[in-house]
Amino acid sequence: MFSKQALLQKRIQIDQLRENNSPSMRQKHLLKQSIESSWYRSNSAAIPKDRSAAPLYTLHNEKQSSLKVAINQCAEELKDIAEQAGMVVAVGDIASTIIWSAASGQMQSAAEKVNFIQGGQWREDLVGTNALALSLKTEQSSCVFSNEHYMESIQDWVCYAAPILDPYSKQILGVIDLSTTWNHHNSLGLLAAERCASIIQSALIEYHQQHLFIRAFAVPQVLFNGKVLVLTPRQVEILSILALCPQGMNLENLHQALYGERKVSIGTLKAEMSQLRDILGGMLGSRPYRLLANVEADFLQAEQALDAGCTEAALKLCKGVFLTKTESPFLCAWRDFLESRLSEAIFKANETDILFKHLAYFPDAIDAVERLIELTPIGHPAQQMLMKYKDEH
């Protein structure tokens, strides 16, 4: 524990840094680079000055993701931690929306007042600097102390957050945040958040029995119960189609979605389905054909991120072209639709670092180049480079 005097001094120093838009080199050591960068992004975002609570999103019969199932399994343990520590514990998805929370008696009212509850949207561009969003952005554990927060209504809080990783695919599924009042700041807070993340990750390992994960961007890969399957490109396409059509498809519709007008016999598709059934055991249903396992996929997560308006999360997932060699008319049409949505989101993006990272994965992403030109000040060396890049492509 820190002494109250030390914590008060820390608050005073942060106030001085906030008033000074360009902290001196002498002061730099007092402020983490991640916090300084977040302040800059928060000041650049169109966040209402009078915003005192996160926007609230009503969750309507949302799909039971692996993260939600895992939370349900360890909810009582997490509630006990919140109560014993005098904290509020919240789990956010990849779009920084809280999907579950529990609070001690001391923090319940404070959490409800600022919508640090289920449905609260804690994206940085909506509420400014906060640990939940910062941990998702940096993909690391984060602590935001007191007036390091952007919104004044939570400047009496200290928050510790840690990302939650899928134990097999290593994708970030969400983030867990432990929050209390600033005067209870503890150097072990981050370790506690990481411990809570590991509790959820242990529950995820149990959930992964009869679980299928499809990675379709860049180099396709399918994991079943945590193990990589050896599949043909056609079988990966079939699984991707069925993942996009959870209600299932009959043989004729699946043949049309996969082959279109190509002259491939129904018998060939039947043989593919027979092989897949052997590989997946009883997890491939028929009449109609459908996946019976718990299914997740990077392209479904990207679509969900776009639905939630979280461009950064979507672009992080799209690290390559979706099934670049597919000739399936269904999958090609879906890829075109996704790329159109991504392009629309790119032209609304305001953070140059996100766009530069996207450009690293997609050198031909002219939409990102054009948006970066719009965001870069006239005469800036980067703009000249981008203009030249655009001309060459």
TrEMBL record:
It comes from the Bacteria. This is Acetoin dehydrogenase operon transcriptional activator AcoR. It comes from Acinetobacter stercoris.
